Amino acid sequence: MKRAAVACLLLSGSVSAAPTQKCETLAHTFFGADVKIESTKIVAATDTLREYCDVRGVIWPEARFAVKLPTFWNARFEMVGNGGWAGVISFQAMDLALHAGYASASTDTGHDAQKEPGASFAYPGPNNPNAARKVIDHGYLAVHETALLAKKLIREYYGRDPQYSYWVGCSTGGRQGLMEAQRYPEDFDGYVIGAPVLDLSGLQMKAVWNYQQAGAGPGKLSGEKLDLLSKAVYRKCDGLDGLEDGLIENPLACDFDPARDLDKCPGDWEGPACFTGAQIAALKKIYQGPRDSSGRQLFPGMPPGGDGAAVNSFRLADTFMKFMAFDPAPGPNWDYRTFNFDTDPTRMSSVALRIDATITDLTAVKMRGGKIVHYHGWADPGVTPEMSVNYYEAAMKTMGPAETRDFYRLFLVPGMFHCGGGPGCGNVDWLGAAVNWVEKGIAPSLLVGSHLEDGRATRTRPLCAYPGVARYKGTGSIEQAENFACTTSGVVIVPAGGVQ
Hints:
This protein has helices at 3-10, 91-99, 131-158, 172-183, 200-214, 223-237, 258-261, 277-288, 309-312, 314-323, 344-347, 349-355, 363-367, 385-399, 401-405, 430-440; strands spanning 35-43, 52-59, 63-70, 76-80, 103-107, 164-170, 190-194, 371-377, 408-413, 446-453, 456-464, 469-472, 484-487.
């Protein structure tokens, strides 16, 4: 069942509200000197969307926003996150919320991706006087200010506040949601946090590390070699949970060693079905993760099964290092080979304070009754799932395991790529789980995910709240969730690194 359809069913008995004034009057309402409402109009209903009031504008200096206010409103507000470096408003995600009756909002976080691609919006110059503010807006402030403005628009339009407010986002949107929970816990009642790039500066450092090892030179890994690597990992680890089903239930329990488990090229000559010594050495460093010259780990490595991260994330890291990571920014001529893992991580600490969502004390969320549903694909090739595991472990250490689980649950999805896709069962009604928890007090211990092919579910599996894993009961089809149970017995959890 589609997420929006589930949300409609969940809210079928909820309070609804209608506008108390005309959409056009919002254009003449004063929302503060820093806010400019540029347009307001009623958009007629279509086959997929209900009628709504469309509000567009900008918050000083350059944070553009959109708010959609349905004529038939479910009395709830949903703000949606961005992907990549943002720079665009997430209209498609807004429309999913609108379809389910939510008032929805999104921001481009203060820059235009077409005019300022990648992280170039952070590069100061005579044509970019707001560069420093754009980093802050991208890091956290534009989302918060848009959330506040959207609630003011809701109050003005409907004559009442939203009954509940939700955040939904994955990747950059996951980071944004955690940043909201850490800095502005009063903004939302429930959070859906997907594959968050929560340690953005550290992740880009890892991408540079990987590219130094395997992006060029003798350790280079082609797509063909990465496919070969993936097959070797699955041969080694697929059956660790007692079932060979094309899914690795917990990659951290997989003792995969490139030097032992990969076919070596005879005479160390490059070949299509083997690995050279340089390639194996590069892979060992990638799995270990970035380290300084004393051997201290700076960021988690790549867990087995997320193969492809070695070279696929470098483009994002390249633009980050050129334009945002350092003060002063080195600019377009920066060379990845110059990154120094002894000195450069400290040089990134200033920007890290503005863009990284690594604060582990979420007591304020718990105290106001907020709930967090956090998910991450175990086969995410770019945003390592260990980052989510380490953050959740650190949060439990900060607040206590039982206290954390009272309001915050982590779900790890075997075989799922970044935010979705892959052979795993990553099609899940995450928002429905958050709504049930916030509004009905039903804490999610087990959620059912499905794998879709041509829109049809070909496999379902239970997804267990961390540190639980799904185990086959021994009878029945392995394609049906009811033949599995969640357990923590025998689970090997090996967090690496830690939140810095």
